Amino acid sequence: MKSKESKPKIDKSLWLTTKSERINYYVGDLGRTLEGYIVTAFMTLFLLFQGINLISISAAILVVKVIDALDDVIFGFLIDKLNIKKSRLFGKIAGEGKYLPWYRATFFLFPIFTVLFFLMPQGVPNAVKIGWFMVTYLLYDISYTLVEVPMNSMIVSLTDNTEERNSILQTKGIIGGIATVLAGIIWTFLISEHVGISIRMVAIVSSVIFFFMMLPLATKVKEHNTELKNTEDEKSTERYNFRDMIKCVKTNKYMAVILLSTLIMGALATGSSLGTYASYYLYGDSMILIIPIAIAFIPQLIAQLNTDKLCRKFGKKKVYMVCGLTAALIYGSIFFAGYNNFVVITILLVLQAAPGNVANIAKTFFTPDTIEYTRYKTGKDCSGIFFSLNAFVNKLTTSIASSLGVFILGLSEWITVEADSFEELAELNVVQTQSALDTLWIVFMLIPALGTLLSVVVMAFYKLKDDDAKLMAQCNAGEISREECETRLSRKY
What we know:
By secondary structure, this protein is an all-alpha fold. Helices cover about 70% and strands about 0% of the residues. The chain contains 23 helices and no strands. Helix 3 packs parallel to helix 7 and helix 8 packs antiparallel against helix 14. The longest helix has about 35 residues.
């Protein structure tokens, strides 16, 4: 990557948020992230431990996502459209702001429905278990949307300063990345054959902790950029109909590129929910794949801390493309090395971690830019609908990946087992066939590698320039006029 002219250092005196507000935002977002991650990490494993037929599990996962397909879009529309502060039911706790009122009124439902999901009864027919999964997962999914959409949309309403936004996104991305790694290690250790605590107990205790982490955000953070300026009719930004929403979506071709890239990568991430299972059956210990994660932790963290600096120096897209392609190629090499070559695999996983995580954080910087682009082009503040679409794609792809992975595994000679922990699974001593293990390796490594490569290729079609997005944000906030913005843009949008 060729270096551009050096960028000025960040002037935090121009930031709108206080340090206390940012800390409470990070902690609240972390609680929300980990609450969702515990279901993402354990859902497939938890269902596999229930002894349900793998094909039936994969079908149930897809069915609930078809039902959920409209939920995120509907709630995103409602969050943008309705003023929850006027609600008789939630108005008293909604408070001030644009997106925070929705968060305050609904965040407590998230841990409640997560706990309910993991309280699936044992010793009942498979039909009852599948029914329990479908109902409680839909409740969990709705609560997930009600928290995630306002949480992510808030990055636009917290501040109009693009450097402040990128710094907040990088910091929360790093905190979330570190925390999910540590939480994954702790959870894996607790449910492993070395400790033997059940998944449901780990999930319930964790959910209580996450509730208290999410609480301060509801009371100690303020949104500073809730009004849209420099529109033809500024009052119209407060009231718009479904046709306006469709127009916003059609206008934002850059968001479409991001969503398609996310869809491909997420839908083919079949190994993410089977990591502990693969570790146990391929290497005889559910903890063994934590070794490369632990080795890569420090270099990965150093790389993440420098993501914003790299993006300011070289540009978001260039950093994402170089790091994303590097990670994809290394990822693909791991499959062909074969799971028997554990030393080689460990080296490759460590090498892949840094560029892979830099690419993931850099990608989060694109979304606020595309929101500003749409606000600039349409005069409508449709942040909620776009983040609801993003939430929908993330959840849909997680379920597709889980369903696809389990379905492919079910086509092999995989033997289903009913157990409550890896300790109990070890006692049962079920031996899988070589064919089943080879299928598990394909699901765990090859399919995700292809998804990573294809998702990076799609992002090559993203053409919104960083400096132009910054000008649009300044125009939307009223810091410069629309005429000045049009004159300074690098091209006609």
